[in-house]
Every structure is written in C-alpha cells, then in structure tokens.
Amino acid sequence: MYTRYWVYQITKRIADFLISLCALVVFSPIFVILAIVAAVDTKASPLFVQTRIGRGGRPFRCFKYRTMTKDAPSNVATCDLEASLYISPVGSFLRKTSLDELPQLINILFGDMSIVGPRPIIPEEMELIHLRKLHGAESVRPGLTGWAQINGRDNLKAPKKAMMDGYYARHASWRMDLHILIQTVAYVLSSSDVVEGHTETNHKSSAQFILKTRPYP
Q: End-to-end distance of the chain based on CA atoms, in angstroms?
C-alpha cells in the first residue's frame, strides 16, 4: 500500500510536469490572446498574483488572469466579497468557464500545484486552513480542480469543503483523478455551482453529501 502510494505520487508529478509544459507551449497563442483581453477589460496587468497556501501549509505565489478591477481587495476570499461590484464583464465569463485559472499551469510546472487536488486558498481563510489540516488535506498539492469542485464547488461551506478535501487526500488515485477530470468538464460547460460573492446556504442536502463521500469508487 505504501509503495503504491509513492508510485502514484511520483508518476502524478511527472504527468503534471509534462502535461503543463505541453499545454503552455501548444496553447501559448490562446494564453496571449486571453492576457490581452484581460488587460484591456480591467485596464490593469493581465496577471493577478496572489499568495496561496500549498502542500504542508507552505505559501506560494499563485497566478490567475485578472478578472476584477484593479481597485478590488486583493486578500479577500471571493465568497466574502461583494464580487458583483468588482468583476469585469469579460472577467465574469472567464470565471464561469474557469479560463482565469489557466495561468496556474505555470504553478503546476514548477511543482506548487497539481492538475487535481484541493483548490489553493488564501492565508486569510483561517477556518478552512485549520479544518483542512485536521482532515489531512494539506498532505497533497493543491490543484486546478478537485473532489470538492465536482461536489458542490462554491455552494460548500468550510466544514464540508474541508471534509471533501481530506477525503481526496486519503483516497487519491489515478482512477479518482480521471473521474474528477471528466466531471470537471461537465461542471465547467454547465457552470454548475458557480456562486460569486456571499452565499447563505449550501444547496446540497446532507443525504447527497453523505452519498458522494462514500469510499471511492
């Protein structure tokens, strides 16, 4: 079991490196176009750089396309922000389609992130950081998409999100990663569970949550 875990971790890191490198090269024209559009739309630098918490609780500089005006608060989680006041017109589209996350391929290339893993959060999200630590979610690299992203995404409150992240850390495998990637495509295309700004309730029932967090598969 221990050997299989390390084989998975090593091969996953190799795959992350190769996939991110190829994507950055092949889709570089698209990345340049998106950068230009983001710069014109927000009238600021197209890249937004923010400190996020990575594996083992270590901070790193996370890259995104800028989707908010330059006067938007830089160290506030979107769920705690009156996002509609700051998100630009094109930025709204980039966020719903998750295209704003594409620069994080650079983070994956450098080893700060993985393609699949818990989403990286800012240091100010103290409750979620504490809960993730309790559930063991800090033992894996944060990712572009993860188990929580296909099981509620923005509708999840911190305790359930931390449980989801910890669940992934304990059950991560190639099969589970493939399942998450396939489901992510469906979520992105349908813009499911995307909520900008304050959320009052989690729209998924407890029964649904329990069902989806049974041992995988």
A: 17
